[in-house]
Amino acid sequence: MKRFFVLICCLGLFLGCKKDAIHDITKYKWEFTSFTVSPALTRNGKTSKNMNDFYDKEQCQTAVVFFSNYTYSISSPDPKCNGYYNGDPSTWKKRGELILLNDHNAKHTLVLKGNQMTETTAGEENGVLYTFVRTYTAVPK
Q1: Is the dihedral of CA 16, 137, 73, 85 positive or negative?
Q2: pTM of the model
Q3: By the 8 A CB rule, do 126 and 134 touch?
Q4: Residue 12 lies in a domain
Q5: Mean pLDDT in the chain?
Q6: Of residues 57 and 139, which shows the higher confidence score?
Q7: What is the per-residue burial (b if ≥16 Cβ within 10 Å, else e) of 23-59?
C-alpha cells in the first residue's frame, strides 16, 4: 500500500510539473522583441540603452524562423537592424540551451531560456566597450 501511495505521489508530481522550456524551436517564429545596450550609447545627440531608439521601429521588426532541415531564415525590411541578415537560408545547431547560427559570413550564439532567445555581443564605439543584447520571443507558427 505504501508503494502505491508513493507511486501516486511521484506520478502527481511528474504530471503536475509545468514545462516552460521550448524544446522544438522549429514550431515557432522567433520575433525580435528588444535590443538593449550597456552602458547607454549616444548617437546624433541622443543617449539611450534601447537600441530601437536609434532606428525606425517598423524598420527593425525582424523574425527568425528555424526549419527542420537545420536551416533558418531572418526576415527584416532593413538589414541594418540585425547583424546576420543575408536573405539566404543559413544553418543552425542546437546544443542544450545554445542555438548556434552560421550565416556563411559569421557565427552567432543565442541562448534559449523559456520562450525567449538572447544574443549577447560586444563592440567598441568611440573608445567605449558596449554590450548589446538582442531578445527574440517565441510565437507559434
Answers
A1: negative
A2: 0.73
A3: no
A4: no
A5: 79
A6: 139
A7: eebeebebebeebbbeeebeeeeeeeeebbebeeeee
